[in-house]
Amino acid sequence: MAEKLNADELVALVQRVFTPGEGDRGLAIIVDMPDAEAADNAAWKERREMAADWAGLLSERKSEIGMERVNLLLYRNVRANNANLPATGTYHSQGPLPNNADEMRGGAVSFDQVFESHEILIAPTQFSATAPLKMAARQCGFRAATMPGFDRSMIPALRLDYKVIGERVDRLKAILDDAQKCDIRFDAAGRECALTLDLRHRGAHGAEDHLGPEEGGDRRRRRGLEDAPPRHAGAVDAVAWGKTLTQRREGAEGENEEGGEPNDERSTKHE
Predict the structure, then answer these.
(1) pLDDT in tens, 92-124
(2) Architecture of the domain delimited by 7-159
């Protein structure tokens, strides 16, 4: 039997992930539509139908997640991951979904309007919308969860206890914040692999960087999606599948361009 989230699970998921607050009034689920340039496939069609089902169930229970409106927005696919979104989309309210972008009906609505009237967005799309939504969120203040390529086999992950996960993330953050490098040793396909990560000049993100609203209902993005500080001098060596790859970065002014070996006294190792 195919995996499916019921209404109770969807309500709980939105509450866990986004922690809707006083300033949240709208939730939109956005999906891209196939066209002549990007042909449909079974997984894509199933994802759109799943998104429509989620929108319908959440709309019926919108008061439980503090929403005044829950909308399903369809838009023509952009044919590449993280390409700019089109200028407009179309709300779909009832009836069977159109088969492709050319069959979409209804008045066009600009994405600026969508961003202004929805504080929470969920994007189970064919082509990733992470980059354009991340950029728009900084200006418009909504929170978004992007789910490119999502399929029903991944649904069990949506039932996880994010409070427990958050506690584990915070424990890892405490370790990483005090480390200068991380050595990872693992086996893959019967071969021993190794990866060394340079952790200097960068703080880890903790569970506080979730998708809940700022205190007081402020719509600004949380720290977790702001630009990370630039990395400084150093080298990262990755040994995998018998090959060594070295990436060197330019150092900040006055620093050695090739950097140095991170202090072993502040390293963390996980076998």
Answers:
(1) 988 999 999 999 998 999 999 999 999 999 999
(2) 3-Layer(aba) Sandwich (3.40)
